[in-house]
Design brief:
The chain is mainly beta. It has one domain: Jelly Rolls (Sandwich). The chain is built from 1 helix and 9 strands, in the order ββαβββββββ. Strands 1, 2, 3, 5, 6, 7 and 8 form a 7-stranded antiparallel beta sheet that branches. Strands 4-9 form a two-stranded antiparallel ribbon. A hairpin with a 2-residue loop joins strand 5 and strand 6. The chain starts with 7 loop residues before the first strand and ends with a strand.
Amino acid sequence: MSLNPQQSYVYLAEDGSSQCFSADTFWQPANMERAGDGWLISEFAFTEDWLTWEMHPEGDEFVYLLSGAVELHLEQGDGVQAIALRGSGAVVVPRGVWHTAKVKEPSRMLHVTRGAGTQNRPA
């Protein structure tokens, strides 16, 4: 089965099974409940800075820049760490760390994270 990761999320369950969800409907409560505590894989295109900070309390997040240029900001105990990525590259955002992105060039990013409990706040 072929899918577009910008339009569908792939959910990898703890038991090794997978499900595909439309990006438009994934965040509905019934789908989130079915998704449980597994891993969520999603791709996003960005032309502007993120409007929110986010934090994943249930696991680290693998953020892979597929194209473009971004600066990821990670809020650490001693301040905000800026990590620049250009062209291609990846960052592992530790569990529980608030993070956001400043878009330097139109970008595509692939995210792998445990979606359960994700929190957001305004940037």
